[in-house]
Structures are given as structure tokens and as C-alpha cells.
Amino acid sequence: MVALHRHKARLETLAVADTEKSAHAFRDMAEITAAYYLHFRR
Q: Which residue segment(s) compose the domain that 7 sits in?
């Protein structure tokens, strides 16, 4: 259980460090998705 808790804390630390990068990736993905949607809707 202690190892699992430690692993979870490490994952949360990584997630916090990665939040900005993830936000950029998510925004890029959203823009690409919107471009495809607009392109195929015509």
C-alpha cells in the first residue's frame, strides 16, 4: 500500500509538471479536430 501511495504521488507530480505541455497538446488536437470538422461539413 505504501508503494502504491508513493507511486500515485509520483504520478501526480509528473502530471503537475506536464500540465502546460498537455494543455498545448490538447489545444493543438482541438484545433485539428475543428479544422477537420469544418472541412468535411462543407
A: 2-41
Number of domains in the chain: 1
Give the position of cell 498537455. Answer: 22
Range scoring the smallest mean pLDDT among 10-14, 23-27, 35-39: 10-14
Buried b (16+ CB within 10 A) or exposed e, 15-28: eeeeeeeeeeeeee
**Of 26, 22, 5, nearest to 14 (Cα)?**
22
Provide the CA 36 distance to its chain's centre, in angstroms.
20
Q: pTM score, two decimals?
A: 0.44
